[in-house]
Design goal:
Number of domains of chain A: 2
Number of strands of chain B: 5
Shape of chain A: rod-shaped
CATH class of chain B: Alpha Beta
Structural class of chain A: alpha+beta
Shape of chain B: globular
Strand content of chain A: 5-15%
Number of domains of chain B: 1
Oligomer: heterodimer
Helix content of chain A: 55-70%
Number of helices of chain A: 13
Largest sheet of chain B: 5 strands, parallel
Strand order of the largest sheet of chain B: 2-1-3-4-5
Number of helices of chain B: 5
Strand order of the largest sheet of chain A: 2-4-5-7-6
CATH superfamily of chain B: Response regulator
């Protein structure tokens, strides 16, 4: 999808910036003009038409003051945007490259403003020329600057029109003076060559100036046209990029919402399944353990198997729920301050009887200072429980599991080391995959959903932490989790 | 230790049936209720020695309401009767979102004034052990 119409903002802002520049330039011209009059007055041993010149200067200053106010209004005005009627004068002045924007009317308004400034400038310059020597004064070449300014702000035909107007004004002044229709106000002395009254010389100077003005209009118009074209292309590209980024963001948001709704549905299903499976597990367990009376051996065997399977299914739905929750947990649920030492102690208590049954020693080594992580207490509990339960499960009798909690340097570190069966090197890269269990793990313990480590990874990532595993088959495994310490957590 | 009267409150009739088999197999006398209001009425009428209540019943946290209503009762018996709450283990921190979660524990998690939790799915052994511990504790406190 392409958009060939740059937004109001880009085009109008560029144009208004140029208008501002023109007005600043004119303030400089006012100062320069005053300096010019004073220099002429004090340094040249000739009479200077001070009154009219200062009059022209004052007119220029007043005009620029008015422009400045209009310009400020342009800057403040943010209403009436949108398509509208563009008059014939604006259509004549509006450069082709900035037509057809989303706010052509506003751009046209700014262009008319620029055109009016240039016309008044040319008239004032013609007056200055008249009061300071007419065609004899090199100031006549200042008309070129206005043609160049016109080329930067207006359409090419308007630039040629400005060149023509400039030329006509100079011609009117110089021919008028030449033929005595208007008086010649020269500097006199060596500064007055008397050329103004020689038609051939006036004609020669006028022709040269005319040619210069039209060449300036042509060159300025060409260069400015190219610049505007490229500018428009850049604006269109920028606009397209911004729109595409916006579209992408919308699509991403929709995708996320869809994902969340899918996830909520999954959670609901898993939750319903877990409840029913739990009841089946309890009921089968009750029968299997003889609470409902003794069974014939074949029935006992089948009920035992069914009870185990029901337990596995219940555990798997629980893990699926936990995994889905760890991945989807809302940021608002990640704001609690959790002391990992408390979580570790709670989990160690919870798993102590199971560890005792397996003849595995569980030791907790914790730092005296708090190990506070900002996050989801439920997820963090799950993470610690999964890592410690894994360590106990895969450590043969007589082995040892050490849990360490440390904090410092802006980090909280939680580590579980065991003297268990270890993870083969080729399995290490798959260990975080859902439903993956290493071969030696399956051989050592039949039960296990293969979801524990995926949950660990999801919780760690959700909390901006890092988890690493170091393992050697037959010697043991160390899982290390590093979290950023919670900012503003209370000190011990 | 047997003959104690236990009230089991859970909307899952099958789970109540299984619990009844396990508990009655060990000599306890079991009464069942299937929602908060029925549970409160039965508790008032029967005054059991122990109450096992499920947290999540059809109207969300009915189990929590039940616990608080009982503990806020003016009747001394209801403030002291041993309570065991059944919950899915991962819902335990859900207590933290309960508006009347009570005072905070040292770990910063609100707690319920109960004698123990049973994590679903419940095995017969866990059920018996938790019941035994809650009754022993109540007996010690006199």
């Amino acid at each position: 999808m392409t958009h060939q119409r740059p937004t109001r903002y880009a085009v109008e802002v560029a144009l208004i910036a140029r208008l501002g520049w023109l007005i600043r330039l004119r303030w400089l011209a006012v100062v320069g003009f005053a300096a010019y009059i004073e220099v002429a007055r004090w340094l040249l041993p000739v009479p200077v038409a001070l009154g009219p010149l200062y009059g022209a200067l004052a007119a220029l200053a007043v005009c620029n003051g008015v422009y400045h106010l209009v310009f400020l209004w342009f800057l403040r005005d943010s209403g009436h945007r949108g398509p509208g009627r563009v008059g014939p004068f604006a259509r004549f002045c509006l450069p082709q490259e900035i037509r057809d924007t989303e706010s052509e009317q506003e751009v046209a308004r700014a262009t008319i403003f620029a055109a009016v400034q240039i016309i008044i400038d040319l008239v004032l310059l013609a007056a200055v020329l008249h009061f300071s020597g007419g065609i004899e004064n090199p100031v006549r070449y200042f008309f070129i600057f206005h043609v160049i300014l016109a080329s930067l702000l207006l359409a090419r035909r308007a630039t040629f029109a400005a060149a023509t107007l400039g030329f006509l004004l100079i011609a009117a002044v110089s021919l008028g003076e030449c033929f005595g229709i208007i008086p010649h106000i020269g500097f006199g002395g060596p500064w007055s060559e008397g050329a103004y009254k020689v038609p051939a010389m006036v004609g020669e100077r006028l022709s040269l100036l005319g040619i210069t003005l039209y060449i300036a209009a042509y060159l300025g118009g060409t260069v400015a046209g190219h610049l505007r074209k490229h500018e428009r292309e850049v604006m269109v590209l920028t606009d397209n990029l911004a729109r595409e980024a916006e579209e992408l963001e919308v699509a991403l948001r929709r995708e996320r919402e869809l994902e969340q709704s899918k996830s909520r549905y999954m959670r609901r299903v898993a939750h319903e399944l877990r409840g029913r499976l739990g009841t089946i597990h309890t009921a089968l367990g009750t029968v299997a353990r003889g609470f409902a009376g003794s069974l014939p051996p074949a029935a006992q065997d089948l009920v035992d198997r069914s009870a185990v399977r029901a337990g596995e299914l219940a555990e798997m739905t629980s893990d699926l729920l936990a995994l889905s929750r760890a991945r989807e947990v809302e940021p608002v649920a990640l704001t609690a301050l959790v002391d990992l030492r408390a979580v570790v102690n709670e989990v160690a208590d919870e798993l102590s009887s199971h560890a005792r049954e397996s003849a595995v020693t569980v030791e907790v080594q914790e730092a005296p200072e708090p190990a506070i992580v900002r996050g989801d207490p439920e997820g963090l509990g799950q993470l610690v429980r999964n890592l410690v339960a894994n360590a106990v499960r895969y450590t043969p009798g007589g082995g040892r599991v050490v849990i360490r909690v440390m904090s410092g340097a802006g980090e909280v570190c939680f580590e579980v080391s065991d003297t268990g069966i270890g993870i083969p090197e080729d399995a290490l890269s798959h260990i975080w995959d859902e439903f993956y269990r290493a071969k030696n793990a399956r051989e050592h313990a039949r039960d296990g959903t293969g979801l524990g480590m995926a949950i660990v990874k999801a919780v760690v990532e959700r909390h901006g932490g890092l988890v690493t595993l170091a393992s050697e088959v037959g010697k043991g495994t160390t899982a290390k989790v590093v979290f950023p310490a919670a900012a503003g957590a209370p000190e011990a | 230790m047997s003959g104690e009267r236990i009230l089991v409150i859970d909307d899952d009739h099958d789970l109540v049936a299984a619990a009844r088999v396990v508990l009655e197999g060990r000599g306890y006398v079991v009464t069942a209720a299937y929602d908060r209001d029925e549970g409160l009425a039965t508790a008032k009428a029967e005054r059991p020695d122990l109450i096992i209540v499920d947290v999540m019943m059809p109207n969300a946290t009915e189990g929590f309401d039940f616990v608080w209503q009982l503990r806020r009762s003016e009747d001394e018996y209801f403030r002291r009767v041993p309570l065991v709450v059944m919950t899915a283990i991962r819902e335990r921190t859900g207590l933290g979102f309960y508006p009347e979660g009570g005072e905070k524990t040292a770990k910063g998690e609100p707690t319920l004034p109960v004698q123990g939790f049973l994590h679903k799915p419940v095995s017969p052994e866990q059920l018996l052990e938790r019941v035994r511990l809650a009754l022993v504790e109540a007996w010690r406190k006199g």
